[in-house]
Amino acid sequence: MLSLTDRDAVTAALTDPTLDPDLRALIGLRVWQVDTDRRRPLGEILQLVVIQPSDTSEVIHEAVGFPITWDQAEQPGWEWFNDHGSWFELCYVLTDDFGMLVFVADDPGTNETLRFNLNAYANRPVITETET
Fold first, then answer.
1. How much of the chain is helix, strand and coil, in % rounded to 5?
2. In angstroms, how far is CA 84 from the centroid of its own chain?
3. CA distance 55 to 109
4. How many CA atoms lie within 13 A of 25 on its CB side?
5. One-character DSSP codes across 32-77
6. Contact 121, 102 (CB under 8 A)
7. Closest CA to 89 of 70, 74, 105
8. pLDDT, tens digit, for every residue of 62-115?
9. pLDDT tens digits along 14-72
10. In angstroms, how far is CA 23 from the centroid of its own chain?
């Protein structure tokens, strides 16, 4: 689980060679698009959360601040959704000037219920570990 709430954390993620290059590109793109007022701390306008394989529902909900794994949630409640192939991107607008982007790995080790629902929403089949 990654929770990026300031420019230093974003820089660390972008330069971390152990993170997926596609994820780093998505993080870089979104921060570049949103972080237009450098006088304000990034954490006042945007939080980025990266859900990785093996993250539990409890860890996910604590990082996001509300339940999103559907075994405990009553929604999808995002503003918009993107399917980037190996990553899903969920955008939540929480106030007029604060949002959260949640990146979810499309990986067999990712929270099963969340991954199943995101694959269904993206209208593509779930590939199980035995099929890869």
1. 35, 25, 40
2. 11
3. 9
4. 6
5. HHH---TTS-GGGTEEEEEE-TT--HHHHHHHHSS--SSSS-S---
6. no
7. 105
8. 999 888 887 666 565 788 999 999 999 999 998 888 999 999 999 999 999 889
9. 999 999 999 999 999 999 999 888 889 999 999 999 999 999 999 999 999 888 887 66
10. 9
DSSP 6: S
Amino acid identity at 122: A
Per-residue buried b or exposed e for 26-54, using 16+ beta carbons within 10 Å of the residue's own CB: bbeebbeeeeeeeeeebeeebbbbbbbee
Look at the alpha carbons of 74, 69, 62, 106 in this order and tell me if their dihedral is positive or negative. negative
Whether this prediction's pTM lies above 0.85 is answered by yes
Sheet holding 46-51, edge to edge: 2-4, 46-51, 98-105, 87-95, 80-83
Cβ(33)–Cβ(25) below 8 Å: no
**Residue among 5, 22, 24, 29 at smallest CA distance from 13:** 24
